[in-house]
Design brief:
This protein is mainly α. It has a domain of 236 residues. The strands form 2 sheets. A two-stranded antiparallel ribbon has the order 1-2. A two-stranded antiparallel ribbon has the order 3-4. A hairpin with a 2-residue loop joins strand 3 and strand 4. The two termini are 36 Å apart.
């Protein structure tokens, strides 16, 4: 617990130590994708469901939040037009979370019926359909011309209002959402629900035989995971203030998987460590190396981690700590025995 508090405190003081706006931008983007990686790890690492379309929830959350804050019209016919006035940005954020949670519920219901490669196809298809809709529904999403002038996130009450314009303020906002996401996942994983989820991952047949409700936990995990990804998408839209269909690109899914696998699949800190490694380091290399060297270093780092730390960085570090604590415990035990004798 103390180590986590120290880590959060260190992240809190980083903007005070770093005055470079470009570095702060990199850290904001890395934080947003770390939140998405944590949400995907809930499905991939704890439920054992290989979702390759998780970026679809991220993109849907970004578009829903942007459209609600800008206002939009949907023309069903010449006589029936659904017009929505611009909503407060915080309310748009909540809409994004609720709608992506509903989509996660739909995917969760479907995941009870399909497994393995079929579930992978369903999730990829979901993300691709969302991308095609965003690209071709020009009257709603502006298509490849992108949605622009998206208002920044703001909070307020009793006449007081604060708008997250600066990179430092967005950094603290993303840090807050990241900490909340981590705490929610940690509480969930350590609860009875989390143990049921891990039993489904390890041996679904055995879990069914002892009465674990497969449908309930799959749907719950999919809903929570999608809602967290939608929240990250909303943060992205209001931070960048412009979005286009490229937010659904498959390369982002690959990046999320790299973060999870290298950090440690099925661990709480795995996506965080992976997000720092592959969200912060590669962009910072642009200052000292050309594009070719960047990708070479990126590939070498991935190969080294996969070869020497096949289960990820966090499980490897935890294995290193166990013998140390064991030796400390042995020293204390032997000291007590010597004192008593």
């Amino acid at each position: 617990m103390l180590a986590r508090i120290v880590a959060v405190a260190l992240f809190c003081v980083l903007p005070l130590l770093i005055g470079d706006a470009y570095v702060l931008h990199i850290m904001v983007m890395a934080g947003i994708f770390t939140v998405v990686a944590m949400s995907l790890n809930l499905v991939l690492g704890y439920l054992g469901q290989a979702s390759l379309g998780h970026i679809g929830f991220f993109g849907v959350g970004a578009y829903v939040s942007a459209l609600c804050s800008l206002g939009f019209e949907i023309r069903f016919s010449s006589s029936f037009v659904l017009a929505v006035d611009p909503k407060p940005v915080l309310l748009s954020f909540l809409f994004a979370v609720l709608i992506t949670a509903f989509l996660g519920w739909c995917i969760g219901k479907l995941s009870f019926r399909v497994r393995g490669a079929y579930f992978v196809i369903v999730t990829i298809s979901f993300a691709e359909v969302a991308r095609i809709v965003a690209l071709n529904w020009i009257s709603l999403t502006q298509g490849p011309m992108a949605l622009t002038n998206i208002p920044p996130l703001s909070i307020g009450a009793f006449g007081w209002e604060y708008t997250f314009y600066s990179k430092a303020s967005n950094y603290y906002l993303v840090l807050f959402v990241g900490v909340v996401t981590y705490v929610l996942i940690r509480r969930l994983v350590q609860s009875r629900i989390g143990r049921a989820m891990m039993s489904l991952r390890d041996n679904e047949t055995l879990a069914l035989s002892v009465g674990v409700d497969v449908t309930r936990y799959l749907v719950l995990g999919a809903c929570l995971s999608a809602a967290m990804a939608g929240a990250a998408g909303s943060l992205y839209a209001h931070y960048m203030r412009i979005i286009d269909p490229d937010v659904f690109l498959f390369v982002y899914t690959v990046t999320l998987l790299i973060m999870i696998v290298t950090g440690g699949k099925g661990t709480l800190l795995g996506p965080v460590v992976g997000g720092i490694l592959f969200g912060v380091i590669p962009p910072l290399l642009r200052e000292v190396a050309g594009p070719e060297l960047q990708w070479i270093f990126y590939g070498i780092l991935m190969i080294v981690i996969v070869m020497f730390l096949p289960q990820g960085v966090v499980p490897a570090l935890s294995r290193v700590r166990v013998p140390w604590h064991g030796r400390s415990w042995l020293r204390r035990t032997s000291a007590r025995s010597e004192g008593s004798s």
